[in-house]
């Protein structure tokens, strides 16, 4: 669920790239990050979570797009590789506003795709969500493979009716931005219809359309034009240029009722330890 920061006049929405191991989740994020102009993106970060590497960054689609004078900032997350623990995915999916399910188009990987979808649905149920009500895009990644299934065959294999399926080749970037901004439009539409209270008025009462926030990519029906905020820096974000945050052992509840989480923060060959202090409020599920 999107979070509203009234002090900054921002709506923070969360998009998660989900899929089986090696389907192309991290490749998607790296390509998207390289294509965004620095003025529109935050820092590319990684964090070790239960032995898995979580990747994430945030971006603003356009300075022109606002809902009730509130900018919409999107936070994109994924977990790299083959994720063993469902708890890792459940943590990343908490508060999600939209999902790109990255499916491997290889004919030999359809069992993994189905298992990944079942896992996604189970994790979403744990948060009271489902693929029936949440904005979801299925990206048929690696569509350039010689044994690639068609989007129609993939749709039949997964059994997802009413969900948008799009071709993609994350390695070259084909269809990557189109998949993302199709989902962005869906999330914005859902935000408008949710009745978020902004400045005393619900979003849905505004004449402005949420699609304005992605005006840069709505210049044609095929959504190829991300040029007004997307550039192609030739250098991918090297991990040693961004802080690497690792959760250490020894998490405890302090005498003041706050959760104390030891962290190791590494950047540019330097490493520091810190403690993250969080106030904890228990609520019945």
Automatic annotation (TrEMBL):
<dbReference type="Pfam" id="PF00025">
    <property type="entry name" value="Arf"/>
</dbReference>
<protein>
    <submittedName>
        <fullName>GTP-binding protein</fullName>
    </submittedName>
</protein>
<keyword id="KW-0547">Nucleotide-binding</keyword>
<keyword id="KW-0342">GTP-binding</keyword>
<dbReference type="InterPro" id="IPR052705">
    <property type="entry name" value="Gliding_Motility_GTPase"/>
</dbReference>
<dbReference type="InterPro" id="IPR006689">
    <property type="entry name" value="Small_GTPase_ARF/SAR"/>
</dbReference>
<dbReference type="InterPro" id="IPR027417">
    <property type="entry name" value="P-loop_NTPase"/>
</dbReference>
